[in-house]
Amino acid sequence: MDLIDTAIKQGYFRKANSMLEDDNRKMATHVILAEGKDQGEVIARLGWAKGRKTVARLNLVTGSTATADCLIGADGIHSATRQYVLRRDHPDTLPVNHNRWYRVGGKLPMEEVEKTLSPLFLRFVPILCGPNGRFNMTPIHYGKTMNIGFYTRAQSDGEVGTLPNPDDFVRYDLDGTKMVEVIHDHDAAPYFNKGRVVMMGDAAHSTYPFMDDGAGQAIEDGAVLHAPFAHVKHKSEIPAVFTAFDEVRRPRALRVVEMARNAGLMYPYDFERFRCASDSIEALKDSWKKFASFTNNADLGTQNQMAISVYQCITGQQVNGVY
What PANTHER family does the database record attribute to this sequence (predicted)? Predict the structure, then answer.
């Protein structure tokens, strides 16, 4: 965020749904095998978090229109911008769920959780994984609430979108069915931009939640857009900014989408793509290290400079004495 503007970072922490009331206490996310011969083994620690505080013409649903020099669409997984950039009939426009994931979850007062949950699981953010699915427990609201989710896969394509069956819950409170949601991501878009329109964040590369890096990738998008925009001298150069963004960000962002799909299969011990991992706990840990290294150890300053360089090549603009 600092690569964009310190005000962005300050604004984020003002609105952040903080995990803990103590600003200085840290919690790590532990991925733990919950079943099998290596039950209880921590296979990954996923970082630490403190308890922190021409024109584009828009046709609006109201029937009115508006114009702008460009449009940056950060309008989520069901993106109208994506439909425009790729076309509505493009096969990669709509969200997908190839691995049939869904989530059951809710939020509970922490005092109720503390009555039943092992104190061990209150010292870190636990992810318990096994062949039947994954449990994830994350404190929010300054540690006053526990957000609990269970992720599992439907047995067939026919089940996706039908869970839960309303007939099974006719005597339940209506809020019960709201606890179940289907998880989606996007297939790889062939490009993120068209003319003076570009998509970013979930609109461009929505991902399963299994790498916990969707927001991080959106922030990288913002930084890479910001870097060449600082050198724009005329609105005619805006398409070059978006082309540079597409060239630099799309390969990395789509790689994270694919890694999240693979990580999701590792949680329920679906090792078809990781045969060595089923035989070696160390190989499984190594896979997680590679995932974490790709998302966390990138040189984001260099990524920004690459976007500036591509922009310079397109426009022939001289920046800092070089092309």
Answer: FAD-BINDING DOMAIN-CONTAINING PROTEIN-RELATED (PTHR46720:SF3), HYDROXYLASE, PUTATIVE (AFU_ORTHOLOGUE AFUA_3G01460)-RELATED (PTHR46720)
